[in-house]
Amino acid sequence: MGKHFLVTIGDDPDVFYGVGFIQHFFDAKDLVRITLFHIAPQPPAVWPEELSYETKTELEKQAGRIEDKGRAALAAARDVLVRRGFPPSGVEEKFVFGSFPRSGHLVLEGEYGDYDAVVLGQRGFAGLSAFLDRGVGVAIMRESFDFPLWVCRFPDYARSGVLACVDGSNAALRVVEHVGAMLKGETRHAVTLCHVRRPGSDGPGDSAAILTRAAEVLSTHGIAAERIATRELVAENAAQAVLAEAEAGRFAVVAAGRTGQGRGRAPFGNLSRAFFGSVSDVLFHQLAGAVLWVCR
What we know:
Elements: E1 3-8, H1 17-25, E2 32-41, H2 53-83, E3 91-98, H3 103-112, E4 117-120, H4 122-134, H5 138-144, E5 149-151, E6 162-165, H6 170-182, E7 191-197, H7 204-220, E8 228-234, H8 238-249, E9 253-257, H9 271-276, H10 278-286, E10 291-295
Parallel strand pairs: 1-2, 1-4, 2-3, 4-5, 6-7, 6-9, 7-8, 9-10
Antiparallel strand pairs: 5-10
């Protein structure tokens, strides 16, 4: 079975970070399908009393220029992928005009489009971050946002491997399932399962049980034992420990559950943290170099 990704595309070909990550991370390109998705801003609204033949014509011209720019960006991204070896039949383009906030259109497309993941570049990250910080539609997103989200903020394409964070929660096991499914057909990337415990909390035996269960999940997806490593960290701040580990190990991906054990400690009013969970929220805003995979 192939992997189908929705990849957001902005206007600037120099910052196609989602496209860049996928082309460098996946070697089995024939197993990958990509839908390139550009959400263009609607032309400015005009009051009915201001509408005339001239204003209508100008609005149509402006909409045409916006669409031409967006479709040119889609074509440029497609060309990059095809030149990198992705089958032309597996790369689709989708253009829509979206009202503000445009991230709402992204969520709807991701939810109902049956994608294995929604891939955000820097522009998509900024839009979703602002969307959450304003609190627009957060209640809807908490209930409906079930698809895996990949956040590509300044990825380092020389990195490899996946650091998968596990804490014994169902969300963490789902992200391990996702990692296993995404690495099917790939042989270059190893997986390090990482459990962070606080000093004086659970003991090494509890950490071992959590890591063993996660390794079993990877094995069901055909990930060989020699490609699976485990790492136990002891730290007061789990998020900062994961960030340091990701940098030290030069991992291409950090994978985390969206609603892990830290969610209940989110302070009231911090909508982004309430939505993601405390650890994944920090990773969402601070992780760079590695790409963040978040699953609910």
